[in-house]
Model the fold of this input.
Amino acid sequence: MLPNPGILKLDLAIRGAGLGDSLRARHELLHGRALRSPVAKSAKSIELVLPGDVLVSTPVGESFTNDSPYKLMQDADRFLLEYEGEPAEVRVVAPPSYYAKKTRSGIPMGRIGSSYGPYIAINPAKRCGFSERGTQCRFCDAATQGADRDEPIPVEDVIDTVRAAFADGNSEFVYLHIGYVDSDDAGVEFIEPYVRAIKRHFDTLVAVQLQPPRENRWIDYIYAIGVDAISYSVEIHDEKILESVCVGRAKQVGRPRYYDALRHAATIFPNGTVWSDLIVGLEPIESTLEGVDTLVEMGVLPVLSVFRPLSDTDLRDHPMPTTQDVAPVFAYLFERVKEAGINMNWVRDLSFAMTPFEARYFSDPNAIVPSGLGPLYRSKLGNLAVRNLSRLRRRLRVRQVNDSYGSSNL
Amino acid sequence: MSQSGFVVDTRSIWIILLQSGRQPMLLLLGVLIYLGVRTFVAPEDLDPAGHRALAVFALCVFYWVFDVLPLMITSILAIVLLPMTGVLPAKEAYGLFGNEAVFFILGAFILAAAMMKSGLSSRLALVILNRFGHDPVTLLRGIFALNATMSFFMSEHAVAAMTFPIIVEIIAALHLPPERRNYGKSLVLAMAWGSTIGGVATLLGGARAPLALGILRELTGDTYTFAEWAALNIPMTLSLSAAAWILLRTFFPTGDIDISKAEQAVQERLDKVGRMTLQERVIALVMIATITAWIVLGEHFGLASIALTAVVALFALRAVQWRDVEGYVNWGLILMYGGAISLGSALHSSGAAAWLADQTIASWASGPVTVILFIAVSSVALTEMMSNSAAVAILMPLSIAVTSQFGIDPRITAPLVAVPAGLSFMLPIGTPANAMAYSSGYLRVQDLVIPGLILHIVGLTIFNLMIWFYWPLLGLSP
Ligand code: SF4
Done:
């Protein structure tokens, strides 16, 4: 019998799946492009929807997937995942058709957006500032991937892509991410026109991932301009390991700044909309647990992804963790987030990482999410409510300061 | 949205919700008050028009006090409601907008705009500071006197807004060490207090006095000339200035400070403005002529006519252009005045003001002394709570009614209401000058509140002494 969907997601993400004969030639199912994340970073992967609507980006056709106990097969219109001789039905998310379209200025949309579950992920920037200084994260090859882009993507092209992705029907939210920008605002001003344009054209939620700005006022500002969820990802909690793996993050930003920025962001953004990625498998488990504690205590949602060595990075020979090694971390993650009362419904349905919501399967497979609103959040009505509540909250919380004396005390 | 022009309110969302629900709730409450007065208050000795005027007044007072709508919008509401409820015919209600006080204040705004836009007012400020600022005490005195005297001729708010950046620059140039911060405090307070105190001296210092005069004229036919008003109030301004100076020196003693850097800063600014332009000379001449005309010919031609003639002259001489003055004129205030005067007139002519005075002050006041004291104290108290123009709009009709009932000369009501309404020393929100002083970062709230409270008490005492001992000498007996 297949493991429960959470454990299955983790195991699939780590070990990948072999492909049955009927699927080997189905190249159109492969998601070639991937987001900057050690989990999703595989040249070839298939997006699967597991029982319980759990999404996972599953590596396929790699050398290590040959040893996987999982096999993905096709039976007429159905897709089956076989484990220990027992098949179970799963769904395959085909790469969206907009990838093949072009924007008004002729850029293939597949080079702009990548769809992961309900998100369309876009990095409109040129390249990560760390890689320009040779201090990029050693697990990341996004820097080299983006290096072919000399100019940022024009706002209009991003809008074309988002429109096409929404029209395809699978994407609902926009996730903008940029690397390091060496300025006080860390790229807030760069991302602002994209956020504003997206908000102007679509009724959607926008999540942004970037590096922490030097001053907290930029965090307030990015909320004020319409960003609904934010991430400053520290990736590695252990200070020494962070220094050796992510020189730029440690030196140009510094771990304390990540935590300070996250702490401040948690006071500005709604509960559960500030998150930080932590990579499981690059530091001792105890250190990851400490990282989870640190984040949870400040009201920040930890999102865990399991390290995978990518062939074109420095860490290609770093050993991969096993599912057994890391499973307790996910159980701990769910318990801690639940205890702290952080809303798990905002950051969910990530195919390339494990959210606390999915981590409930490690703690208690029948666990009910504290708010009990999970299904509602996924419904159309729930989405509509969430979008409007988010807008209302911003309207209430962000006040213009009228520094004109003219209007006072006539 | 600019990156600095906003704040993210991190208080509990319920508190924010409650607060943002405040305005609609208050709007509704105002309507209920209006309906309540119409339905449940049944004054036997008041005719129906008076009754309805009372309800409109209650609604406007409520909106003014709680800032439910911008002041001028409440005034517009008053003008709309008066004909709609049948208190005044539409022609009359809107006609009251044409009150002389409204046009006087419009003229005064345009003249002040011309002075500011041309740079004449800042030149004046810089020249005076350059002349007097050679040691810390004379510089401080210079700033106080400069703000006070300039507020004789233009709105105290405009004076404060104009001198504030110069003072901030002076303080920055002085690089005051922490133990000399008192000097910084006294400089910004000298600016705030000087302009506030100077602002009550003449009809030009603030918009309260013309409004009080407008209502007085509309309701009783009486008025004051420019010179009469100044004669009534300048002694009070001088005594209050002396008291403020003593307080400044007592609360914020300053040791020896080298102010050569400040002199240099002023000189640099002066160098930047260069020689006086022809435009400035023309404006200066027109201003001198206007003030002289207000003093000498005011009674004959009326203050508004002289002010507007000066405006025409400025345009005829091409000393100013319309787009220059447009932004400086506080159109909201002009709308506010029109509405307030209409409402005051409606209350008076319908008998509602007299009825209200009868039910309130007249029922317990024992004689002129208590009446005068009550009006002055109410004016001070209302000013701390709301805009001083709104305080004048509310108090004037009532005061005129009550003074008539006690056989007091109703002319006294204009200075009695308008002068205390201008005396706001205690809170940063009291007046824009206080807000600017506070925003300099040199003052803590207690630096404003404690000396401000003393100055308030001293001010009221001096004011009462003037009413009883000085005003009678000018023929104005309580
Ligand atoms: S910040 Fe690190 S992980 Fe992100 S793009 Fe730059 S180098 Fe890669």
Q: What stands out?
A: The CA atoms of residues 223 and 269 of chain A lie 7 Å apart. DSSP finds 15 helices and 14 strands in chain A. Residues 33-42, 368-373, 402-410 of chain A have pLDDT under 50 and may be disordered.
